[in-house]
Amino acid sequence: MTKTEPETTLDTRFSEDIAQATPWAHTRRRLQDAELFWISTVRPDGRPHVTPLLAVWADETLYFCTGPEERKALNLAHNPHVAFTTGTNTQDGEPDVVLEGTAVRVTDDGTLRRLADAWVAKYGEGWRFDVHDGGFHHSSGAGHAWVFGIRANAAFAFAKSPYGQTRYRF
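Given the sequence above, the corresponding structure tokens read:
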């Protein structure tokens, strides 16, 4: 997926007077470095589903994996729109980030191998995957997973001290 610089704006309605827009480079770094994310999907009956998971940032895309029988995958088959959040449960510190977009399944073995390497680099050997049949397979035999990339259409950074809300449009 190609590198894109989004349109960046500070929403002054939800920001202190001294706040400035958070640069996309800073928010991108938060997405790269975050260990844990929360994904929000929608069940076929319209109810929300939210769960924590691991993800890697590569090629200006956030990638995650899930078993084809898991609720996330079942929801995505019905509605591919998702929201990812990451941050801290504190009033001070780094900005919290929300990424909204469409989940697209990745099946290309070359891309999957590169992403499997990224999982190991970020999370360690316990997250080593073999790649075949269009997905990840855990070397322990614990099962297989589909990989999805999020094509962002919007993202938000919620700065703390001073409070500021930055919107990114792609």
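The two ends are 13 Å apart (CA to CA). Try to locate this feature in the token string yourself.
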